[in-house]
Amino acid sequence: MADSSDILIIGAGPGGYVAAIRAAQLGLKVTIVERSHLGGVCLNWGCIPTKALLTTGEVFGLLSELKAFGVNAGAASFDLPQLVKRSRAIAQQLSAGVGFLMKKNKVDVVEGTARLIPGLVAPIVRVERENTLLRELIADAVILATGARPKPLPSIGLSPDRERVWTYREAMVPKRIPATLLIIGAGAIGIEFASFYNAMGASVTVVEALDRILPNEDAEISAAAQKSLEKRGIRFVTATKVMGSERRADGVTLDLESADGSHTRQSAEVALLAVGVIPNIDNIGLEELGVEIARNQIVVDSTGATNVAGLYAIGDVVGAPWLAHKASHEGVRCVEFIAGTPSPRVPSPVPACTYSDPQVASVGLTEAQARDIQGNIDIGRFPFRFNGRALSAGHTEGFCKTIFDRETGKLLGAHLIGAEVTELIHSLVLAMSLGATRDMLSHVIFPHPTLSEVLHEASLAAGGAPLHM
Ligand SMILES: Cc1cc2nc3c(=O)[nH]c(=O)nc-3n(C[C@H](O)[C@H](O)[C@H](O)COP(=O)(O)OP(=O)(O)OC[C@H]3O[C@@H](n4cnc5c(N)ncnc54)[C@H](O)[C@@H]3O)c2cc1C
User: Fold this and answer.
1) Domain 358-462: which CATH class?
2) Could you tell me the distance, in angstroms and rounded to a whole number, from the CA of residue 145 to the centre of ligand 1?
3) Whose CA is nearest to atom 9 of ligand 1?
4) What is the pLDDT of residues 12-26, one digit of tens each?
5) CA 141, 306, 98, 430 torsion-angle sign
6) How far is ligand 1, taken at its centre, from the CA of residue 373, in Å?
7) Residue 121: its pLDDT value, please?
8) Residue nearest to atom 52 of ligand 1 (CA)
9) Cβ–Cβ under 8 Å, residues 203 and 225
């Protein structure tokens, strides 16, 4: 006899575990199946442990600037096992925290690998551990939140021991800082690792197939980020594809082809593959159920419903943007729909952050997209070097760029580069979600002295009247 619940969730990442909590809050009986760690990639191998490493990189970098702040300290060095241990401990603490939240919300946690077979109301879920059937579960609704894994690159492949070619997993628990590191892919993950390893003394080169780094960001931000990171010693090879690779005992050599067809070779102690992720859709029984898949992603409607009755999907497994907050948001929306209590819809855009040094944060349309979609726009820019708080903190690099619809005055997009911009962006996310206009933002009182004043000034600048520039 199968155990039954109202909602059964497969995968306990930020999509699945948040969906479980919300479903329990709505009074539903919930079961969640997880084959590895509670908290998924984000808490264990993504968002959180990378930020712990990046914080060490920042602290270490700051030590070389202490004299300018009037502080004298001895020569700085670092303890690699300790900084990795700190990162892993934070991940484990948060994963245990998810376990506590599951208990608190009376969510039944089943440890094992789930597979779907056709059922009457919704698919039946079989959970296996070490190839042995553990439990058979049924529910009124099944939510797939199985996430994604590193995308392989056919021209490079992954060596079984991953000694010379790393994915983010190996890059997060290094046994040594390689003297030379080649990073393939200049998206958020590649740039964050470039920032960390550069701060810890590696000679870093980033290879990107497209013609600019952080290709999803506004082109002006990509250019500013490249300039800043180059100033710190990171090298970039853009518009260049990896065509092949050769692994040796002491390193790896990549065959590169640039957009003009010319070929070069680059060698390093280690290469890090950061070309994106692919959804975990294999071996879950999707083909047998006839679940619609497009470009390796499960196709869903705005509630997360698939084409199979009673089966839903959320988070990385349904595609970009590959972000934890997007996965959680989809989880909440999905279970509220299933429970018959959908929240009033707030048209919230999905912000994106890169926690490199300098940081990058954005929301809404880029300038190119806004010109394409909206036509007439007003743009405001304000640099941190004219902001008193930024000067006193020693963070004068970067700027805020705001984009408004000229006719309605509505904020269409905001793009920032500089210190703490991953914290600043949320005010403009809120502003966009609530339909704020340039006029409204121009009359908001921002505290002084704070970095947030650049948001105000960039809005004023879009109307041609910044106060401090
Ligand atoms: C290095 C790195 C840094 C990142 N940094 C950020 C960041 O700063 N901010 C941000 O928003 N996002 C970041 N991300 C992306 C973020 O981690 C993902 O978008 C997020 O984890 C997606 O959540 P999810 O719940 O969809 O899937 P996941 O977190 O991948 O969770 C899926 C879970 O499902 C489980 N599972 C899969 N198949 C089965 C099965 N058959 N049975 C049982 N369990 C199964 C897996 O074990 C996993 O725990 C980062 C990613 C990486 C790799």
Assistant:
1) alpha beta
2) 9
3) 47
4) 999 999 999 999 999
5) negative
6) 32
7) 87
8) 46
9) no
